[in-house]
UniProtKB/TrEMBL annotation:
Protein name: Uncharacterized protein
UniProt keyword Transmembrane helix present: yes
Gene3D superfamilies named in the record: 3.30.70.270, EAL domain (3.20.20.450)
Bilayer-crossing regions: 12-33, 290-312
Length: 754
């Protein structure tokens, strides 16, 4: 599982794309260059082959021309020899000289039938007889009447001649000779060697050879190779074929194309033309091409790398903005969500736990010292926590003053608790920012990731729920999540939903009032009731007032709930009046939230009393704690309420911080002594009780006294003895439903002793 997104992005968003693009572009460039190189060599091959073939045609034509000229020369020699035999005075040497000029021959010799020269254009050879084995002797002894020899050296003077012979009927014969050098002059323009020389004189041809079918070099642009035999197997195999062939070759470190072109005369192969064609020009062009391609590749790769690196830096910056807290450098809540999602997807995950750290007094620091100061405190918190972390532990800033740790591979809850205690311990020392020393209190909610967690939201929900449990607890500042917390949350959610439906008028059954009677001790008469809110919810049963009132305050519903209670109480008061109990009062508890609302008094006048249905006696009860922080403002509201003929009682007197000096300033009519003091009457000596003093002092400042929670006759007797005005409690009656309260009132009036 990827743990560090900044490291992930370095590999994922830079190196891999850069390598892929670089390799891909390099391969594409290499293939393109290779194709261009192959194209260059192919063009060179085609060009060289085309030129070689053209020379092969020339060579073929030359061979044919040479053959034709040779045949014509042989025919000329034969005709001249026959003509000489027909001349009558041919035995005259001078005539022979004239004939030689006429036929453009160099020598004429006449032989008798014994092979002796009888006449000649050269007098020094007259009388010479051809010895046995001599070509002349061989012709004389043969049955041939005519013969033309190939060029051979003369046996007497060593000069090369081409000789022709014709016999007459007597056996005598004539010999005609033409000097080889004269023959060369005649057919020189058609000689193969000259043609090869012309080929080699081209600027783009290095060497040229003409090789016969027996692999002998008959002609060459390199004279020292003429007459030698080719013994290289590959070259022989090339020349054995009847098709042109091209191969790369190396000679003395230089690169060449070796072109082999077969030469045919009358469909008969007479040899092969071998041409060595240098590749230096093409190689130079290819080298230039490679340099250009390399330069372009480097430029493109550099530009691409620069773009990718910029994108990488930009992406890394975006990743940092998206997944890391700018202030502390920690992973943020988005990172946490994605990380936990990956954890839940892994079926083989190791044991993991989430620790939610909440710094309870951080908001006060921001208000007192400013946000910059608060930021420095957060940085110091980050540094402190990191001192306890291992490399596998993950640290996140969840939101403003809350952090999350993810621990893994722990043994049990004891190990987690020990780690949490270490965290608590490091914050026992103050955080120093500038010259200020600040103590920060931390609460730690621990959630072990189990199979029951099917979503990231569920994990974080459980952590937040555990934290709220710590806030409600006020004892231990470390807590582990358990399912009872979730049940409690579901219960609270159900209660809040019902309260909202009650406020909106959708539910008229769940929320109701019960009424506890109050007895005037002097008159022994029920003078009123205290309206007590009750809530009964399906599947939850009866919900304690302390529970749903606290939830109403937490969810900011208490004002609307209070108004609803007041409306129900007024309905009951209206019924009492309708039943004839005009002097019976109904007391309603009013919250501090209601009293602090500027429109509370105005709403009372407009909504409750505008119809004139409700008259006195209505009574409001307020607690001491409401007065602590807003004494003057609430006292002004109480004054306005009293002007509406509504009596006011101070509830739970003695549990708060009120003094009799402040009571004298309050716009109230009655104090209600808390049952905490009333309970003491049953097990405390009378001389040690202070209730009598409280009653006496209240009377002195004009206040009546109500005793709450009276449960036995001893308590009643004591209170009656010391002048308590009114009592209420289970001794008289428990809180009663509306109908039961009416019936109780009727019965008591008819028989107070029942």
């Amino acid at each position: 599982m990827g743990r560090d997104k900044l490291k992930m992005v370095e590999i994922t968003y830079f190196l891999v794309p850069f390598l892929i693009i670089s390799i891909g572009f390099s391969i594409l460039t290499a293939l393109t260059v290779k194709n261009r190189i192959d194209e260059q060599y192919r063009q060179l091959e085609e060009t060289t082959l085309e030129i070689a073939n053209s020379y092969s045609h020339s060579l073929t034509h030359t061979s044919k021309a040479y053959e034709i000229i040779t045949e014509l020369l042989d025919e000329k020699i034969m005709i001249a020899s026959q003509a000489i035999m027909l001349i009558e005075n041919k035995d005259n040497n001078e005539v022979l000289g004239s004939i030689s000029k006429t036929f453009n021959v160099d020598e004429i010799h006449l032989y008798n039938n014994e092979g002796v020269v009888t006449n000649s254009t050269y007098e020094e050879v007259i009388g010479w007889q051809a010895p046995e084995g001599h070509p002349v002797h061989d012709f004389m002894m043969s049955d041939q009447t005519m013969l033309v020899e190939d060029v051979r050296p003369d046996t007497e003077n060593g000069l090369y001649y081409k000789f022709g012979y014709v016999k007459d009927e007597t056996g005598g014969f004539v010999q005609l000779g033409i000097l080889a050098e004269n023959i060369q002059d005649f057919i020189g323009a058609f000689e193969i060697t000259k043609l090869l020389s012309d080929i080699s004189n081209r600027g783009d041809v290095k060497h040229v050879f003409f090789v016969d079918t027996k692999y002998e070099i008959l002609a060459s642009s390199l004279p020292n190779y003429t007459g030698s035999t080719i013994d290289v197997k590959d070259i022989r195999e090339e020349m054995d074929g009847n098709e042109s062939d091209v191969h790369r070759d190396e000679i003395n470190g230089s690169s060449f194309f070796r072109i082999s072109v077969p030469i045919f005369v009358e469909k008969e192969k007479i040899g092969s033309l071998l041409i060595h064609w240098p590749t230096d020009k093409v190689d130079a062009k290819i080298t230039q091409m490679l340099r250009y391609a390399t330069t372009v590749s480097l430029i493109v790769i550099s530009i691409t790398g620069g773009i990718l690196y910029y994108a990488y830096r930009k992406n890394k910056s975006n990743i940092k903005i998206a997944y890391y807290d700018e202030l502390t450098g920690l992973r943020n809540s988005k990172y946490l969500t994605e990380y936990l999602y990956q954890v839940l997807r892994n079926p083989y995950r190791r044991s993991k736990a989430v620790l939610l750290l909440n710094f309870v007094n951080f908001k006060t620091l921001n208000i007192t010292y400013g946000f910059l100061y608060g930021d420095e405190v957060l940085k110091q918190i980050t540094v402190k926590v990191r001192t306890l972390l291992d490399s596998d532990d993950l640290f996140f800033r969840f939101d403003g003053d809350r952090f999350i740790l993810v621990l893994e591979d722990y043994a049990d809850q004891q190990e987690l608790r020990a780690f949490a205690d270490k965290l608590m311990h490091i914050f026992e020392d103050p955080i120093i920012v500038g010259t200020e020393r600040q103590y920060v209190a931390v609460q730690i909610a621990i959630v072990e990731i189990k199979d029951r967690h099917t979503s990231t939201d569920k994990i974080l929900q459980d952590a937040t729920l555990t934290l709220s449990h710590i806030k409600d607890s006020s004892t231990d500042q470390v807590a582990f999540f358990n399912e009872d917390m979730e049940k409690r949350l579901l219960r609270q959610d159900k209660i809040v939903k019902v309260l909202r439906e009650v406020i909106e008028g959708k539910d008229t059954e769940s929320f109701y009032l019960e009424f506890q009677p109050k007895l005037d001790l002097m008159k022994d008469k029920i003078i009123g009731f205290e309206a007590l809110a009750r809530l009964r919810i399906e599947n939850l049963g009866q919900v304690a007032p302390d529970e749903f009132i606290a939830l109403a305050e937490e969810k900011l519903l208490i004002y609307d709930v209070g108004n609803h209670i007041l409306l129900l109480a007024c309905d009951f008061l209206k019924r009492l009046q309708d039943e004839g109990f005009h002097e019976t009062s109904v007391a309603v508890n009013i919250s501090g939230i209601q009293l602090l609302r500027e429109d509370f008094v105005e709403n009372l006048q407009q909504k409750l009393f505008s119809s004139e249905k409700v008259k006195k006696p209505l009574e409001f009860e307020v607690t001491e704690t409401v007065l602590l922080d807003h004494f003057s403002q609430i006292n002004e509201t109480l004054e306005a309420i009293k002007k509406m003929d509504i009596a006011i009682s101070l509830d739970d007197f003695g549990t708060g911080y009120s003094s009799f000096s402040r009571l004298a300033e309050l716009h109230i009519d009655t104090i209600k002594i808390d049952r905490f003091f009333i309970d003491k009457i049953s097990h405390t000596a009378e001389k040690d009780l202070i209730i009598s003093d409280v009653i006496s002092m209240a009377h002195k400042i004009g206040l009546s006294v109500v005793a709450e929670g009276v449960e036995d006759e001893r308590q009643k007797a004591y209170l009656q003895k010391y002048g308590c005005d009114i009592i209420q409690g289970y001794l008289l009656s428990k809180p009663l439903p509306e109908e039961s309260a009416i019936n109780f009132l009727r019965r008591y009036e008819s028989d107070p002793q029942q």
